[in-house]
Amino acid sequence: MSIRAEALTYIYNEGTALEQKALDNVSFEIPDGQFVGLIGHTGSGKSTLIQHLNGLIKPTSGKIYYNGSDICGEGYRLKDLRSKVGLVFQYPEHQLFEVTVLADVCYGPRNLGLSEEEAAERARDALSLAGMKEKYWNQSPFDLSGGQKRRVAIAGVLAMQPEVLILDEPTAGLDPMGRDEILEQISRLHRQRGMTIILVSHSMEDVAEYADRLMVMNRGRLAFDGTPRQVFEHYRELEEIGLAAPQVTYLAYALREHGLDMRTDVTTVKEARDAILELAGMKGKR
Fold first, then answer.
1. For residue 91, what pLDDT band results from cuts at 50, 70 and 90?
2. Which of 94, 168, 102, 111 is nearest to 130 (CA)?
3. pLDDT tens for each residue of 113-166
4. Neighbours of 174 (CB within 10 A)
5. Alpha helices (runs of H) in 194-263, residue ranges in sequence order
6. Which of 204, 223, 181 lies closest to 266 in space, CA to CA?
7. What gap in Å lies between CA 146 and CA 225, rounded to an integer?
8. What predicted TM-score, i.e. pTM, was given to this entire model?
9. Is 219 in contact with 57 (CB distance < 8 Å)?
10. Where along the chain do its domains lie?
């Protein structure tokens, strides 16, 4: 299974004085089970791109394929696609509306035509997957903390049993503990369920920690595409387009500039720790 884009272009307000090209000839393939970090400054095309992947926006030109089928082709059932490619918008808790947590998560499966019993079973499974304890299921979602609301909103998408989960800044506005909990839960879904994850983020540390692959958008184009190490080697070019590398990468370069034989391909705190211990001759002696 995979998602593939070929020469994807999208123009807002085409043919008017407000015409703006949001995507410009973007091509890529995301294989099944990959964890992709999608980064770029505000206005780079990230949000426009992810809305194409489950058919919310139709491209001005180019093609998008899901498992080999053109999702914009005649007769393609977008309803089926949206049950397989789940999209969690930024601040998804703003879309909660039911009287209880369980009822809110049942909404999607019910719209697929499932019985009340089947919808409830899916909702319970999804809430467990999202890390929501059973004691909260019959509470009003509006009585929950910000992080808990975010979990409920993610569970609402998981209840559709997607094969691909796309999350647009899922930790925005959360405190550090809530942020870490949400990211760990997403990582657990990837590890245990083999789910394809596309994580839109402004945090270089987060994508370096969790993603297998980084796609960098700039002015509607795919500027870089590779592993976190490969992408962050271009930290000076990233700075030119309003981004940066993780702080530990800058630390590694600073140590090297001060004469230490420090590896500079570190992107996470763990990698930096191991590199420093190795440099000090302490690795394996702890």
1. confident
2. 102
3. 899 999 999 999 999 988 899 999 999 999 998 889 999 999 999 999 999 999
4. 18
5. 204-210, 228-232, 235-240, 247-257
6. 204
7. 33
8. 0.91
9. no
10. 246-286
